Amino acid sequence: MSPDLLMIGSFLLALLLGVPVAFALGLGGVVGIVTGLSPDMLATLGTNTYNSVAKYPLIAIPLFILTGLIFERAGVAASLVRFAQAIIGPRHGGLAVVAVLVCLIMGGMSGSGPADAAAVAMVMLPSMRKAGYPQPFSATLIAASSSTAILIPPSIALILYSIVVPGVDLRALFAAGLFPGVLAGLSLLVPALLLARKHGWEDPEATERPPLWESFKAALPALFAPVIILGGLRSGLFTPTEAAVVAVTYGVIVGSLIYRNLSFKDLFELITEAAVTSGVVMLIIALAGIFAWAGTTLGTFQHLAEGMLSLSDNGWVLLGLVMLLVLFAGMLLDAVSIYLILIPILLPLMNHFGWNPVWFGILLAMNIAIGQFTPPVAVNLMVTTRIANIRLEHTLGWALVFIAAMATSLLLVMLVPGIALWLPDKLGYVVGNW
User: Fold this and answer.
1) For 37-51, 201-215, 305-319, which range has the lowest pLDDT when averaged over its residues?
2) How far apart are CA 63 and CA 301, in angstroms?
3) Residue 104, domain extent
4) How far is CA 380 from CA 147, 150, 335, in A?
5) How far apart are CA 395 and CA 138, in angstroms?
6) Residue 433: inside a domain, yes or no?
């Protein structure tokens, strides 16, 4: 058996046996080195793991994770929900619209879908249940809407993509994710509103409208967070990594001094939680470095890419197959693992067909977003169903509806690259040909 097959096979076997992704990647890389190179090359393990994490932009990941936890604990979601309710007003499907809008805004603070799903579900699920929405529907809608955090800047997944794919400007990726993220959110609103009106969920006469001005004043500190982050990036005041530091600082100020829901003890607990989560992410990145180095040195990724190219010489056919592959991976793995495993394989395809790397990165992110609420793993859906105290399988029918809706927005971005590339191009970032 060839070293390529042994490396990929040992990795897949480890996953099937329940080995954590990080260790499965490391094991696959070691098998590839031993069988295809030389046992002496195991001396490179330390260098490869260190080089994988010793990258300045990666500092932003733990900081944005901490930002999401701080804003969740600070009670930002509650103020945003009240303000959105004041804008939308009492109507059939009003709370569904509020849930999607709040998830989009929260996505502009943390870049983490599960964190946004938890924060919004805690606030929205009781209100939606009282208004007559089925809990499985509400949990699925919030899980799907919070998946847009992977697109709305700042996005942890896009930070990682900019590191894995050489020469891609992270600012261009952030700008490119904005319109597709909003489009994905709007695509979820269509079936949500139609279903709410069809079933008569949320009686307008039984719902009170919060005062608009008071709600706006309470939500203003939260609304300023995306403005500060994106405005600072656009003006050149700080880099994406520095933006993460600013976001944490602003979150602490808002949570402790304005909303006053954040104590020193809470902050210590959140830093500890962020450190644990970040440690898991960094461990995956570190051990994936062994897998990536072995696959590159052996030529495994090039061989896999050539195998995919042999299926068809039509770029659109291959792009469709890649999207199906990423969707399947998104049903089983987290975004970090998908990028680290698949990007080395997909890079030769991207270069062969001349796909714009910024546009391609957004397509991958949209596909992974769908995977975040697609069973069996469905990390966002696991969070919301746990809060709703319902079983995951009860949401399957609703999940199919929202998967179809977001897949439509993905297809639009595939066919019209300008949806993603127009904004970074107008802002003067390097996006390449499109």
Assistant:
1) 201-215
2) 32
3) 57-427
4) 7, 12, 12
5) 9
6) no
Please check whether residue 351 lies inside any domain of the structure: yes
Exposed / middle / buried, residue 268 (Cβ in 10 Å: 0-12, 13-18, 19+): exposed
Domain membership flag for residue 37: no
Summarised one tens digit per residue, pLDDT across range 57-82 is 788 888 888 887 888 787 787 888 88
How many separate domains does the chain show?
1
Q: What is the pLDDT of residues 323-354, one digit of tens each?
A: 988 888 887 777 788 888 888 888 888 888 88
Are 309 and 21 in contact by the 8 Å Cβ rule? The answer is no
Taking the C-alpha atoms of residue 282 and residue 58, their distance in angstroms, rounded to an integer, is: 9
Distance between start and end Cα atoms, the chain = 42
Residue 195 within any structural domain of the chain: yes
Picking from 330, 300, 315, 292, the residue whose alpha carbon sits closest to that of residue 165 is 292
Confidence of residue 416 (pLDDT cuts 50, 70, 90): very high
- State how far the alpha carbon of 268 is from the alpha carbons of 12, 275, 278, 281, in Å: 38, 11, 15, 20
CA distance 33 to 297: 9
